[in-house]
Design brief:
Oligomer: single chain
Helix content: 55-70%
Number of strands: 0
Distance between the termini: 102 Å
Radius of gyration: 34 Å
Length: 109
C-alpha cells in the first residue's frame, strides 16, 4: 500500500465517522462544547477526558464477588463458639434512670 492510499483510506474513515457522529442527536452541541472548552482551558479538557475514560473503564470492568466462602472445620466452629461472648442489648441502667423509673406510675391489671 502506498502512502497516498493510506491517506485516502484514513480520510474516508474520518469522513464516515464524522457523518455517523453528526446523526446522533445533540452531537453538534457536544462538539461545540468540547471545542470551546479545549480552546479556553486545555488542561480542564484533559482532566474531563481522563475522568470520562475512567468512568467507562469502571462501568465495563468485570464484576468481582465480595462474598468469600470460608470452610471451617467442626473443631474451629466449636472454638469460635466457646470464645464468643455476646454484647448486652442495652446499656446498664444508670442511677439517674433508676430514680426516674421509680417515679413512673405502674399500671397493674
Amino acid at each position: 500500500m502506498h502512502l497516498h492510499e493510506v491517506h485516502n483510506a484514513t480520510a474516508r474513515f474520518v469522513g464516515d465517522a464524522t457523518a455517523q457522529l453528526s446523526r446522533i442527536p445533540g452531537s453538534a452541541i457536544a462538539a461545540r462544547y468540547i471545542q470551546s472548552s479545549y480552546q479556553d482551558d486545555p488542561v480542564r479538557s484533559a482532566i474531563e477526558l481522563f475522568l470520562f475514560l475512567f468512568a467507562v473503564r469502571y462501568l465495563l470492568a468485570p464484576k468481582y464477588s465480595t462474598q468469600k466462602t470460608v470452610q471451617l472445620t467442626d473443631a474451629e466452629i466449636d472454638e469460635l463458639v466457646e470464645d464468643w461472648t455476646p454484647e448486652p442489648l442495652v446499656a446498664p441502667v444508670t442511677q439517674l434512670e433508676e430514680l426516674d423509673n421509680d417515679k413512673r406510675p405502674v399500671i397493674v391489671g
